[in-house]
Amino acid sequence: MNTLTSQDFFKNGHTPTSEVISFRKDKDHLASHSRVHNCVIDNYNNPERFESDTWVAIYGRHNSFDHNSLTGKRNRGVTLAVRLNTEESRENYHEIKNNYFGPRQNLGSNGGETLRIGTSHYSLTNSNTVVEGNYFDRCNGEHEIISNKSGSNIFRNNVFFECRGTLTMRHGQHTLVENNYFFGNRKPNTGGIRVINEYQTVRNNYLYGLTGYRFRGALVVMNGVPNSPLNRYNQVVDAKIEGNLVMDCDHVQLCAGSDEERSAIPVGTVMARNIFMGNTNLSPFTIYDDISGITFRENIINKEAILPIKKGFEKVGYNVIKNEKGISTPDPDLLQQINFPEVSVPVSKDETGAGYYTKTDLEVGFGSGQVIPVSPGTNTLIEAFGKSNPGDILQLEGEGKYLITKDFTIDHTVSITTPAGPAANVLSEKASFFRIENEGALELVNLRIDGSESPDQPGNAVVTTSKYSMNRNYRLFVRNCVVVDLDVNHSFDFLRIYQHTMADTLLIEGSRFTNVTGAVLSLDREVEDLGIYNVEDVIVTNSVFEKVQGPVVNLYRGGTDESTFGPIVRAENNRFIDCGRGKRNKTKASLKFHGVQNMLIEGCTWQNSAPLTLYLTNGEPIAIVKNSEFRQTPGIVSNNDQFTTENITLTDE
Ligand code: CA
User: Fold this and answer.
1) Cα-to-centroid distance, 530 and ligand 1 (Å)
2) Over the stretch 134-187, which tens digit does the pLDDT of each residue have?
3) What is the pTM of this model?
4) Measured distance CA(194)–CA(180) in Å, rounded
């Protein structure tokens, strides 16, 4: 047996090939009966976000990958892949056990899976891989945490901690998913188990606090495509979904994905002895098509819930207790009734991964460091930043003037604030005030940002991202700021981003923008319609925008990919006055959202502005506009009527 075990590790670099650890010498010499354990790959990423590589590729047969730590993958490509691409790698009986799969940031595209077994090409052959006792910690790359794409694999005794996605039986038959624990803890988009294909078994799994909907529900049974090509969706046939505990989860989706193409309903399928106990969403079941091919038997649901299924459920009172191990569970009598084994986490985080390697979190919160006072003057801000550490707060003096005359590169987390009273004045002689580079994150609080010293040229911006690919997601928070006179020339944006950059969150709160010749948030640089986009969450609240010639927000996510959750937009209690009407505004909108997956606009007022423009596309987007008023403004322009309005007024005054 070959064994690779190492106290060294792969960190802070990247592979020049397409695999970091490969169970083969070359394509003709595969490893078999080999073991890799106690190894670490941490933050070992290609700087090009969309250059694809795989950290671990398992070929051959009878290999073991155990007690390893794989954490912080940020570029495209599966973290761990089992390959079945040659005859010698099929029917492989690999074991993937007790590994720690550490946090993986949202990729903002397909290709962010943590574990994939097989590909659609060989999905009708068996892999016989066992995935057992692993800990998946916030694996948020995309909506498939695990993409199972081959036959006869077993997923047992794994823990999924706050993962935004699901264990997906994407292809392949005879999968067993048993005794896995999913803790969503009410985090957004956390999911459970998604069933596709023939002869799948899902039993005695524990699912808690999962909030995801559609393909990211706690339990999802998909519709298939009749005579499906290999790369589409096989019909669910003879699935057994039995003895699972679904606790305080929001969505169980049956016949999900039903459309003209996916018209083959689940058949021969049994849902029996499951407990659905929840009070967060009292209408947890969504049924998209004919469920006559699913038999419901001896299930238990709390009686407060609205149930669209006629038979096969016993109603009981909502009753959730914490057991002696601190885990939420229903009444022990009910557990006995469904033959659920002891409610107990099958593996702890400490029991997984390379024992010698500490599991740390890389993300630094705003304001978590020291306060550094900064005197007014020229480039005092840049000097103070140079002395700061991640998380520090640069504290300015009220009414002070802070002029920037050099490039200001933000390459770690920092807050720039005036504590109270009058806001400090920040001006720049450069085309951009602040440039966020990899590892940077910026919070601006209680500042007056003035464009009057900016160069007399088109295309200035207050904040830009790197011009090059960034493999780390960033955050930009703007709170209680006054932004004035971004108008020295045309096309002066507040935020300008570049291709292959990704923000986790862009927040504007309690701020006022006046006289802007470009856009406030210009987020439309992924133009190739590949399902890639530039920001997950956009939040704009309690703010006023006046005389913004471009769109206040222009967000674009093109293509038909269904692997992502975002972009997600929330805009509440804002006023838009004379916005979006500049002659250079190609969008002809005050706000434009293309391909947004989840949008809520509430309590907003438009006055003398261009319309709110929506382009609603794939993925059954949710778009809601309510309690809002359009004065001398055309209202909502959309490509279809798949949005919801409530209490909207349009007036000429
Ligand atoms: Ca995927």
Assistant:
1) 13
2) 999 999 999 999 999 999 999 999 999 999 999 999 999 999 999 999 999 999
3) 0.94
4) 13
Q: How far apart are CA 44 and CA 57, in angstroms?
A: 15
Q: Which residue has the tokens 């794409």?
A: 149
- Does residue 413 belong to any structural domain of this protein? yes
For residues 32 and 238, give the distance between their C-alpha atoms in angstroms, rounded to a whole number: 34
Domain span at residue 280 reads 2-351
State which residues have CB under 5 angstroms from ligand 1, the bound ion: 110, 144, 563
Whether residue 310 sits in one domain with residue 367: no
Q: How far apart are CA 414 and CA 477, in angstroms?
A: 10
| 134 Cα to the center of ligand 1, angstroms | 20
Q: Given this model, what pLDDT does residue 4 score?
A: 61
User: 288-311, pLDDT tens digit by residue?
Assistant: 999 999 999 999 999 999 999 999
Domain boundary among 324, 351, 378: 351
Gap from CA of 112 to ligand 1 centroid (Å)? 7
Asked if 456 and 576 sit in the same domain, the reply is no
Does the pLDDT of residue 6 top 60, yes or no?
A: no
- In this model, does residue 1 exceed pLDDT 60? no
How many residues are present in the chain?
653
Give yes or no: residues 394 and 496 share one domain.
yes
Assess whether 122 and 27 both reside in one domain.
yes
Assess whether 430 and 332 both reside in one domain. Answer: no
